[in-house]
Structures are given as structure tokens and as C-alpha cells.
From TrEMBL:
Pfam families: EamA. The chain crosses the membrane at residues 12-32, 38-58, 70-90, 96-117, 126-146, 152-170, 182-203, 215-237, 244-264, 270-288. Keywords: Membrane, Transmembrane, Transmembrane helix. Residues 16-140, 153-287 form the EamA domain. Coiled coil: none annotated. This is Permease of the drug/metabolite transporter (DMT) superfamily. InterPro entries: EamA_dom (IPR000620), EmrE-like (IPR037185). Belongs to the EamA transporter family. It comes from the Bacteria. GO terms for cellular component: membrane.
Length: 292
């Protein structure tokens, strides 16, 4: 039986969601600093997250080993693993500007899923916010619009990554209504790490030999963008429609660009400023209209 959860009330969910997106935005910086293969980064990001959360799992009364033996969490974990594999691999083939455009497809996919299975979550103001953020993403990527579809493989991987992210969040919202928060995130991360382990084995990458710098980055990805960032996304979908969470996540690449400028000295494309403002406007518009 699912206990009644009272973690968030009212507008509090949006402040927490903002914290999650900000924390999640450091993932791109950490990945850029690592020279390990993409799937290796994804595997250690998830497996170290599971290790960090294991002591808490065994101390909680609502966490039992039989809760791991559930087909539904296995499927959600599979969706998360596929999203990570597709997303980090896409950057090997497509421009970052293209990825910013394609990540905007995620809330469109969630809107479609809600239209089919959860029409009660559909609201006109949410749809308007989605299209404002999409417009902002197009502005951000307009500087390299000539490269759009220059590499079909990379662009297709980015689109599919957005699609699986939408499925991951949408299926998680449904399942979160039936499970307590911590057993849910632990089991999903556990299965995602297993699928990533299989992927690492299938692609023939080494599990060792990455140096202390990479291990620190793996740990940073686990502790920040995953244990805090992704866990907040999973908490938020219990309280608000999946599309709102997806819209908020569109702000991630803008913040990642800012952090890369501050921490790595990378240049910021000129159109990132007006496009980023539109994205943030769409995010704020969606959240305030829903919370109001």
C-alpha cells in the first residue's frame, strides 16, 4: 500500500523543480570534462548513484528487496538507460546547437502521450508554454541552422533520446502514483545501471583505466545531476503533469552553456541570449499558469 506523501505543497514543487534543473545542468559540463566513452560515463553515473543510495534503501521501512522484483520499474529503468545511451552518443555525431533544438521535442512527445493516455493533464496554457520554449530552442540553434540534418544519424539519435526521456518521465508519473518515492527511484536507477552494464559489455568498453580525474567526474555526475537532479524530476512528476517537467528540462542546455562559460571558458553563441530568455519565459509561463 502506498503511503500518503506530503513532500511538496503548492508552489513549492516549482522551486524544487528549478533546483533539479539547475543541478541537472552540470551534467553537460562534467561530461565535457571527461575523456571516457559516453556509455562508460552513463554506466558509472547510474551505478555510483545506486551505491550512494543503497545505505538509505536498507534503513527505510518502506524499502524491501521484493520491491526490486517488479516488471514496471524494470521497464522504466530500461527507458532511462536507453535515453542516456542515445543522448550522450548523439553528441559524437551532431552539433550541440542541433541537440538544443531536438531536446525541445521532449515536451511535444509528452503532450502526445498525455493526449493518448492522460487527457486530464492537458491544459491550453501548458501547451502555449511548450511552444514558447520550442521557439526559444529554435532561436538558440539558428546560428548553425545550416547544419540541421547535416548528420542524419546524430540528429536521429538526439530525437530518439528526447522520445525515450518523455516515455521515462510519463511512465514514471503513472508508476509514482502507486509507489512511494524512494523505493521507486532506487529500483529505477538499479535497473538502469544493469542495462547500462550490459550495454558497456556489448560495446566492448573497458570498466577500468580511466584515471582519478574521470572517477571524480563520474562521482560528481552521480551525486549532483542524478541523485539530486533526476531524483527531483521523479519527485515532481507525482505532483504536476509530465509536460511541465519536460518544459522545465528544456532550460537545461541553456544553463549548461552558461556553466561551461563560467567553468570551462567556452564561448557563448550570440543567439543563446535571446533564445535562452524565450526558453526561460516559456518555463516560467507554464509553471505560473499551472500553479495559479
Amino acid at each position: 500500500m502506498v503511503e500518503k506523501e506530503t513532500y511538496l505543497k503548492g508552489a513549492g514543487v516549482y522551486y524544487v523543480l528549478l533546483l533539479g534543473v539547475v543541478t541537472l545542468s552540470f551534467a553537460g559540463v562534467f561530461v565535457a570534462m571527461s575523456d571516457a566513452p559516453a556509455i562508460t560515463i552513463a554506466f558509472y553515473r547510474m551505478s555510483l548513484s545506486v551505491i550512494l543510495l543503497t545505505p538509505i534503501f536498507f534503513r527505510r521501512n518502506d524499502c524491501r528487496l521484493e520491491k526490486l522484483l517488479n516488471f514496471r520499474q524494470t521497464v522504466v529503468g530500461f527507458f532511462l538507460a536507453i535515453h542516456f545511451i542515445l543522448w550522450v552518443t548523439a553528441f559524437d555525431y551532431t552539433a550541440v546547437a542541433n541537440a538544443v533544438i531536438f531536446i525541445a521535442l521532449q515536451p511535444i512527445f509528452t503532450l502526445l502521450l498525455e493526449f493518448i493516455w492522460a487527457r486530464e493533464d492537458l491544459q491550453p496554457d501548458i501547451i502555449a508554454g511548450v511552444f514558447i520554449t520550442i521557439l526559444g530552442s529554435l532561436v538558440v540553434g539558428a546560428g548553425e541552422i545550416g547544419n540541421l540534418f547535416a548528420n542524419i544519424k546524430g540528429d536521429f539519435l538526439a530525437v530518439m533520446a528526447a522520445f525515450f526521456a518523455a516515455i521515462y518521465l510519463f511512465s514514471g508519473r503513472s508508476l509514482r502514483k502507486k509507489m512511494n518515492y524512494f523505493p521507486y527511484i532506487f529500483s529505477v536507477y538499479f535497473y538502469a545501471s544493469i542495462f547500462l552494464f550490459l550495454g558497456l559489455f556489448i560495446f566492448g568498453h573497458s570498466f577500468t583505466g580511466y584515471g582519478s580525474r574521470n572517477w571524480l567526474l563520474f562521482f560528481g555526475l552521480a551525486l549532483g545531476p542524478t541523485v539530486i537532479g533526476h531524483s527531483i524530476l521523479n519527485l515532481s512528476v507525482r505532483y504536476v503533469p509530465t509536460t511541465i517537467v519536460s518544459v522545465a528540462v528544456i532550460g537545461e542546455p541553456v544553463l549548461t552553456t552558461l556553466f561551461a562559460w563560467l567553468l570551462l571558458g567556452e564561448s557563448i553563441p550570440q543567439l543563446t541570449f535571446p533564445g535562452g530568455l524565450l526558453i526561460l519565459l516559456g518555463v516560467v509561463f507554464t509553471m505560473t499558469r499551472k500553479s495559479g
